[in-house]
Amino acid sequence: TNQILGFNTLRSDVSDDFTGTQGSKPDAARWGTKNFGATNGSVVYWNGLNNIQLDGSGNLDIFAEKTSGGWNSGWLSGNKSYTGSRYFEARAKVAAGNGPWSGPIWEWDAPYGGTGLENDVIEQLGNEPTSYHTTLHPIGASQNSKSNDTNKTLANDFHVYGAAVYSDRVDYYFDDAKIQTITKAELGNKWGFDTTAMVLNIDLDMGGWGCDVSPPG
Predict the structure, then answer these.
(1) Mind spelling out the 3-state secondary structure of the chain?
(2) Per DSSP, what are the bridge partners of residue 182?
(3) Residue 147: how many CB atoms within 10 A of its CB?
């Protein structure tokens, strides 16, 4: 199960076009990795760079493999953090099938999600092939998650997913058109997304949130 990503931002100092030879690893100056396990309907192990590689055509490939104990997959986390108003985007082809829970671009508070502040630009569930979720997790309030139906089977092609963060809202974009907005007022005026240092993340989960996959027995 593969999730392919070509990443870019409007700031050249933090962009990554994932150029490099096939099978090589992403730039360690830009990206770190996660190495731990979790249970989200199936057991997933994010095992460093073992399931992450460049494809030789300017893309990043994160792939999940079924094992006797669950699934092995990959998770990248940016080495820089950001505050203030900003725009960031990813060009991605999400993983196909009923089991994947693709997260080709999202951010959480630096360094490792200690407060729970999280901005999910795209969470795409394999059992909802034409739609994806945009979600804000504030501190001290319930999350706000909205579904975005694109009328396209997202795993069939690359699409651009973006977010513009402001002091009172986040505007979300799909293929350069604004598709959704979540406001500070909707979160009971709980915010901090522009003032808290945040880092970019890329990961691929299996199972959870209604995805149709079970841990191997």
Answers:
(1) CEEEEEEEECCHHHCECCCCCCCCCCCCCCEEECEEEEECCCEEEEECCCCEEECCCCCEEEECEEECCEEEECEEEECCCECCCEEEEEEEECCCCCCEEEEEEEEEECCCCCCCCEEEEEEEECCCCCEEEEEEECCCCCCEEEEEECCCCHHHCCEEEEEEECCCEEEEEECCEEEEEEECHHHCCCCCCCCCCEEEEEEEEECCCCCCCCCCC
(2) 170
(3) 13
Q: Kindly report, residue by residue over 19-45, the tens digit of the pLDDT.
A: 999 999 999 999 999 888 887 777 788
- Report yes or no on whether pTM surpasses 0.85: yes
Q: What are the tokens at 192?
A: 């901090």
**Which residues does residue 73 pair with via DSSP β-bridges, in sequence order?**
46
Cα separation, 198 vs 111, whole angstroms = 8
